[in-house]
Amino acid sequence: MRADHGDRRAALLARKEAALKRWPNKADAEFKAELGEVAHELDQLARSLDEAQADALDRLRTWCAVGEAYLLLGQKHALQVASEAFRTAEALSSMVDTHAHELMQLKHGYGCTLLELAAGANMELASEAATRLSSALALARKHMPVGVASIKYELFRAEHTVAQLKVRNSRGGEPQFVRALREAEAA
Fold first, then answer.
1. 31, 57, 101, 110: most buried, per Cβ within 10 A?
2. Quick check: 187 pLDDT over 80?
3. Domain identity same for 79 and 113
4. Are residues 72 and 92 both part of a single domain?
5. 141: burial class by Cβ within 10 Å (0-12, 13-18, 19+)?
């Protein structure tokens, strides 16, 4: 990666961290606007690196940064973009010698994104989330024990969601509140 691309990514990541410190509740409109700009600019950077066929590790790191920024936004469209970014990073991870810490962050971020997209209603996404979070947990136990607790919690949420959906499907229906949400969205 050219130095200017590396500097640009570093500056964007610094802006993301500054936004997280300035708006720790992540709910302010100003936070969402700032992080939306950062995510968009990271996305543009990642695409330009792909077009230039830059180093796969640099592309992976940039796509992970895109995914993390959109995940923080938390809106459905942002989560879908985050999922695509993490999917791209995951594909790149098979082409390079990724550090265990980076791979753990990728699996954790991707798993959390899929879990949020599952929204308690999509067993396939919740199962994929559990698989990635399980991989992240195995890596964290070996390479970053301080990250184990948060990953365990997210894995529990994913596995619980899968179990709840299996029970619901075996009973042949969905909870009334989910049905009401679907009807409200359709209206």
1. 110
2. no
3. no
4. yes
5. middle
